[in-house]
Amino acid sequence: MQETRSKHKASWPAMIAAAALAVAAAMPVATHAESDAVKQLAAPPPIQLPLKPSPEFAKFPQYAGTLGKRQIVLRLGAKTDDPSGVHGEYQFADTGEVILIAGDRDGDTLEVEESNDGTHITGNWVGKFAADGSIEGERMNVDDSNPLEFSLRPLAAGQKAPSAVPVQAQKPAQQPTQQPTQQSAPQPRTGGQPVNGVSNLTIGE
Fold it and tell me: Spans of biased composition, class Low complexity (predicted)?
């Protein structure tokens, strides 16, 4: 009897140790699942395409001018978490298309990258700030091809930027109006003559 009790007493430490190991093994899984949930909550919402002007960038200084031969408006401001970092967006006046930009300003030198979907880089900008606040330089593709000059001047406080006007859909070509066909004049009836002005009565010739 004592031998049986000693066996039961000896089995409890083993059971407790096994339970502790099971709890320890389950804790990393629960912690990992919790961290994934926190990451999902902290992750920014997906970017909606096509891009639209951001209310966050609406308060930034605005610059109006040309990129190549197209009119654009640039909204550019400093990053809150990077002293030399800048970010913002520019918008084409003819189509309303919005492109995001981000990069650095070192003194009067501006170097930024652009993206039309918030993920993939579509071009690079290199320019210089003048004493009057204007910016001039070149925009190139990712492989430095197809350089386009840009020239932008700052808009005064309260001055409205040129509004973006979407391209109007082409109107379908109008069909040429058909000219009404002239009805042929009725052929005179032959074989008789009207009697006393009544045309439905005829006499033979």
Answer: 161-188
